[in-house]
Amino acid sequence: MILSLEGMTIRSESKIIVDQVSLSIREGDWFALVGASGSGKSILSQSIGQLLPSQLQIEGSITFKEQDLLKLSAKEIRKVRGKKIAYIFQDYQGSFTPFRKIGQHFDEYLRVHTQSAKRTRYEQAIEALESVGLAEDLYHRYPFQLSGGQLQRVAIALALLLSPDLVIADEITTALDSVSGHRVLEMLAKKQKETGCSILFITHDWRHVRRYADRLAIMKDGSIVETGGKHRILDHPQHEYTKQLIKTAPIFEKGLRSGLDRS
Question: A single GO CC term, please (predicted)?
Answer without folding.
Answer: plasma membrane
